[in-house]
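Lecture notes, continued. The same structure-token format from the folding unit now serves as the input rather than the output. Read the line below as a description of shape only.
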């Protein structure tokens, strides 16, 4: 019999009031319809770890879609439903999203197959999950609001810093859970217990049967963690990196590059330079293989058009940064801009891994400046100042951008004067 714990006070303390009230409200509407509602998964785990998380995953004993429809009717917002998976997402007018799912058991036809869905109770639903720390629920139906459901000792495992599977075939059924285990180890400084570790080791070769797209997704998430190199190290220890990416580089070089890219990302982020969270996908190829191999390997991953483009520009940027005579640590910002203005932040981050420390810092500084640039003069200002519009505008505006990058205190008037001079001299020749 699981220990009775009540976490209402923790929820009150830890959650934004609007979230707390939303959970109470969903619990009330569920109870009025004789349904049980449970908050489950990552949000419960993070609640007990005092970490912010407002990804509301709610499992309903009853018809989750029906409840979502009624919530939307009563309280507004919008819903999206997936009848096939018995799930609905309700977007509350406050902007917060709630996932509502009918309690289910997941059957796997063969390893790594997508789950088929069938009605079931909350305990069975929780039992089908990856790790004990993710397999707790908090009841939110009015009568039992705040009761922690902990059938598998997740609470104890959280306190002991332990990642533990719920059943022996867990990794065989879903090998991506091996990567998730490593990700949670890395994020929380937890450890798999001996048995889980052994099961992960034994199941690692099942990663071969997972679709490349899913692997790429999991890896991106892993490398987005604070301590990405620790995750990579663990992947190498468990011999799973080689099922995902083939490379002839040494372990040391692999870890170094992951560390460098992590450092670049953090410096970008600290300076509000945006990157797609999935930016790692393209870099996986660029970082560990030569260009030719990278393209061949990437082709097996069915990348999106956008990701393919980033991959190509990254490869191109590596060449520019490491080979171009115009790019050096002493190069003016404008020179960087001339060579790389069209290269996205994601591609530049990946390419800077291949520069030495000084050049990398110069590149980072360029990206930060470029990101802060708000052009003082655009096409409209040129027209207002009496310039005749035409295709040459593009070049003039680019030159003005460069001048502004190099002279942050310059005024719009000074830029327009400059544009005048350029045009005048252009007319003479
Ligand atoms: N889950 C699982 N097996 C997987 C993926 C997910 O059992 N391969 C379950 C876990 O119970 C998890 C929940 O589905 O808590 C939600 O998954 P997801 O949103 O991917 O992960 P979180 O645990 O919320 O982790 P994160 O904080 O990284 O989003």
């Amino acid at each position: 019999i699981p220990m009775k714990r009540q976490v209402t006070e923790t929820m009150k303390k830890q959650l934004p009031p609007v979230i707390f009230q939303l959970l109470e409200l969903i619990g009330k509407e569920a109870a009025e319809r004789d349904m049980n509602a449970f908050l489950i998964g990552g949000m419960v785990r993070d609640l007990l770890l005092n970490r912010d998380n407002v990804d509301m995953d709610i499992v309903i004993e009853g018809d989750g879609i029906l409840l979502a429809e009624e919530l939307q009717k009563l309280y507004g917002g919008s819903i999206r439903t997936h009848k096939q998976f018995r799930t609905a997402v309700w977007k509350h007018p406050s902007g917060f999203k709630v996932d509502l799912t009918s309690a289910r058991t997941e059957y796997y036809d063969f390893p790594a197959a997508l789950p088929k869905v069938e009605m079931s109770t909350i305990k069975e639903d929780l039992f089908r999950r990856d790790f004990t720390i993710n397999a707790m629920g908090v009841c939110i139906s009015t009568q039992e609001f705040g009761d922690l459901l902990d059938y598998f000792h997740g609470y104890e495992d959280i306190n002991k810093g332990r990642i533990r599977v719920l059943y022996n075939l867990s990794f065989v059924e879903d090998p991506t859970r091996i990567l998730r285990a490593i990700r949670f180890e890395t994020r929380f400084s937890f450890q798999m217990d001996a048995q889980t570790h052994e099961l992960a080791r034994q199941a690692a070769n099942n990663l071969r049967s997972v679709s490349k797209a899913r692997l790429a997704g999991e890896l991106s998430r892993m490398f987005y963690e604070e301590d990405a190199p620790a995750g990579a190290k663990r992947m190498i220890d468990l011999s799973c990196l080689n099922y995902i990416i083939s490379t002839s580089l040494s372990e040391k070089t692999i870890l170094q590059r992951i560390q460098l890219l992590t450092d670049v990302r953090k410096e970008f982020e600290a300076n509000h330079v945006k990157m797609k969270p999935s930016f790692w996908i393209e870099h996986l190829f660029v970082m560990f293989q030569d260009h030719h191999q990278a393209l061949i390997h990437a082709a097996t991953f069915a990348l999106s058009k956008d990701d393919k483009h980033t991959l190509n520009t990254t490869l191109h940027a590596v060449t520019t940064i490491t080979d171009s005579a115009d790019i050096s640590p002493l190069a003016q910002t404008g020179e960087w801009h001339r060579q790389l203005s069209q290269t996205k932040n994601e591609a530049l981050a990946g390419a800077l891994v291949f520069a030495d420390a000084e050049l990398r810092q110069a590149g980072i500084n360029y990206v930060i400046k470029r990101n802060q640039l708000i052009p003082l003069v655009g096409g409209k200002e040129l027209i207002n100042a009496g310039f005749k519009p035409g295709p040459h505008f593009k070049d003039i505006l680019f030159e003005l951008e460069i001048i502004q990058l190099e002279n942050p205190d310059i005024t719009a008037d000074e830029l327009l004067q400059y544009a005048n001079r350029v045009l005048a001299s252009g007319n003479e020749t």
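Point for the exam: The domain at 161-244 is CATH 1.10.110.30 (Hydrophobic Seed Protein).
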